[in-house]
Specification:
alpha+beta, 2 helices
Length: 191
């Protein structure tokens, strides 16, 4: 399961000007202080060596109490140039087009896609084609094509590692359900 938190974002700042490290702050509806990011890895070449600011034009409230105020871990994919199809009609009308077997009108757009694997919350994602984005024009360092390929492989490895951790946790949980329980298995509870 992933934390999809794009709708609750008010604004954010991402900084990848130090090679191998992404820091930043993200403000959410209903939270007075920003969530702090301290992640290892680099963004794709559009963000690598640069800082990025983003604003959600229509943030929505939601319950995010369990989202840690400090997010540390490794990045997955980090880009402001992922291409996505964006409908040119309201989402409610897509069902009508689908039922009539008609293609709905759409256009290609750049999407902000920020994915990381937090030690506190697991997989966290922000994805939106409606944010207002500002990327600094001058890069402190440039990522080569070979470095970007290496980073994409590292991102895929991070996802596989995360999925492996989930599978192990689930297996341990299933193992624990099958074991007989003793009187000391519930801390503080005595018969």
């Amino acid at each position: 399961m992933a934390w999809r938190i794009d709708e609750q974002v008010i604004r954010g700042e991402i900084d990848n000007r130090v090679r191998g490290r992404i820091t930043g702050r993200i403000w959410f509806v209903g939270r007075p202080a920003p969530v702090e990011l301290d992640l290892s890895g680099n963004g794709w070449r559009d963000i690598a060596g640069r800082s990025l600011a983003f604003v959600n034009p229509s943030p929505k409230p939601a319950e995010l109490k369990a989202l840690a105020m400090r997010q540390s871990g490794v990045i997955g994919d980090f880009t402001a140039s992922r291409k996505v199809k964006v409908p040119d009609i309201p989402m409610e009308q897509i069902g009508e087009y689908y039922a009539a077997r008609k293609p709905w009108p759409w256009h290609w757009a750049n999407s902000l896609y920020l994915e990381w694997f937090s030690t506190a919350n697991g997989r966290v994602m922000i994805e939106s084609a409606s944010y207002q984005l500002t990327v600094t024009s001058a890069a402190r360092w440039e990522m080569t094509e070979a470095e970007e390929e290496d980073q994409r492989r590292a991102n895929a490895t991070a996802l596989l590692h995360f999925m492996d951790l989930l599978a192990r946790a689930e297996a341990e949980d299933d193992e624990g359900k099958d074991k007989p329980r003793g009187p000391d298995d519930d801390a503080g509870f005595r018969h």
